[in-house]
Amino acid sequence: MLNVGALREGYVLDHIKAGKAMTIYHDLNLDKLDCTVAIIKNARSNKMGVKDIIKVECPIEKLDLDILGFIDHNITVNIIKDERIVEKKELRLPKKVTNVIRCKNPRCITSIEQGLDHVFFLADEEKEIYRCMYCEEKYRGKRNK
Ligand SMILES: [Zn+2]
Prior knowledge:
145 residues; mainly beta
């Protein structure tokens, strides 16, 4: 069981791959939010050996599940209210991600025009393939795996 005693309202991200908590911390812009964040590294896990956990105390609407689903949809999201888990959210691959990954195609308009949003859409859900909205270049980077 998770110890969530200190959290009144917020969420706990569980089953984060060990070593990935800081990446997720930045990708979710938690460093820019004015809320309490606890990062637990290398927690013991029956399922994973070791894992990272992030606890965030803030209004839950501020959590961007799309970005999280994109990074790793195996993460468990526990929604906390009044110090209890009231809901577990399933993550899925988002249909679209904006400004999370960048297009590497040098001829893509996003490489030429600096101010443009980097938008990728889910082209193949089964194979987990994302393509640039502008040039359809396939995203070949790793999604934090
Ligand atoms: Zn592109």
